[in-house]
Specification:
3-stranded antiparallel sheet, 2 domains, single chain, globular
Length: about 280
């Protein structure tokens, strides 16, 4: 059993390997975990630097069409050249990239077998829709308060706090420290970004099948106030007959309670059994 593992923003493969140790100790020792390193330097994830040394890396800083497409291509190329892999696993930004790669591969070759047999998502951000636009976010005043959809009339404006497909981008971009938005001149800073999938709208489109149609395990922090809703959106985009959701009492981090780690381990093994794995 081979896992391709994607780390979160502002961490690195060694950090993810350490974070996964409690889970791996409960899984079969013959299972192999390989870690894909982000190629872009960034600031450390909050509180990470207090425990782990760098480098602090990511797969892309901002969800621009070019950056996300490049990261997705890297994941799919690695899966092909170094595979086969049975499972793709990711935390936070890495989980979003994993989900985006799965969705992209399925849309490119819908009749082909999936490149991965199962997926494990920890504290995921909503995956991005590569055909969504892009959207131009504009800074007006101290915060990003408007967006223009490039697939809509130029006069159309969308409040990021109410547009269901764009919601979540504010907190995500404001959480990045590479650009200090509040210090920029009002109305002068713009960036093109992709929209995330929004389950109710996805269900009304012609591609209304499950975005991810393989066994999945989702672990979500009950106190993850920034990204918990994004994680739950990803759950809705996966096949309800093949998904398992496990929560823990904390925030945007891996589960720390031994009982929850045990539940995740059992869920992973059950997912692999659904995918056809025989112990």
């Amino acid at each position: 059993m081979r896992f391709l593992c994607l780390h979160g923003m502002g961490t690195n493969p060694e950090i993810l390997e350490s974070q996964l140790d409690p889970l791996r100790s409960r899984l079969p020792h013959t299972w192999e975990f390989e870690f894909l390193e982000g190629e872009i330097s960034t600031n450390p994830f909050p509180d990470i630097a207090q425990t782990y040394s760098g480098p602090y890396l990511c797969y892309y800083r901002y969800p621009t069409p070019e950056a996300v497409q490049s990261a997705v291509d890297t994941v799919l190329d690695i899966a092909k050249s170094d595979g086969p892999f049975d499972v793709i696993l990711g935390f936070s930004n890495g989980a979003a990239l994993a989900a985006t790669a799965l969705a992209t591969a399925a849309s490119r070759s819908p009749s082909d077998p999936p490149q991965f047999r199962a997926a494990i998502f920890f504290s995921s951000i909503t995956p991005y829709r590569l055909n969504s636009g892009p959207v131009t976010l504009t800074l007006e005043g101290d915060t990003i308060i408007s967006a223009t959809r490039q697939d809509a009339p130029s006069s159309s404006r969308y409040d990021l706090h109410t547009d269901p497909e764009a919601s979540g981008l504010v907190s995500e971009l404001q959480g990045r420290k590479e650009i200090k938005w509040s210090e920029q001149e009002p109305g002068r800073v713009t960036t093109d970004v992709l929209l995330g999938y929004y389950p109710p709208l996805h269900a009304t489109r012609s591609d209304s099948k499950n975005l991810i149609d393989i066994p999945t395990v989702h672990n979500i922090g009950e106190q993850d106030h920034n990204y918990g809703e994004s994680s739950r959106r990803l759950v809705e985009l996966c096949n309800p007959r093949l998904r398992t959701v496990i929560t823990h009492a904390g925030g945007h981090h891996f589960p720390r309670e031994k009982s929850v780690v045990g539940k995740v381990a059992r869920a992973v093994e059950e997912a692999m059994e659904r995918a056809g794995w025989v112990a």
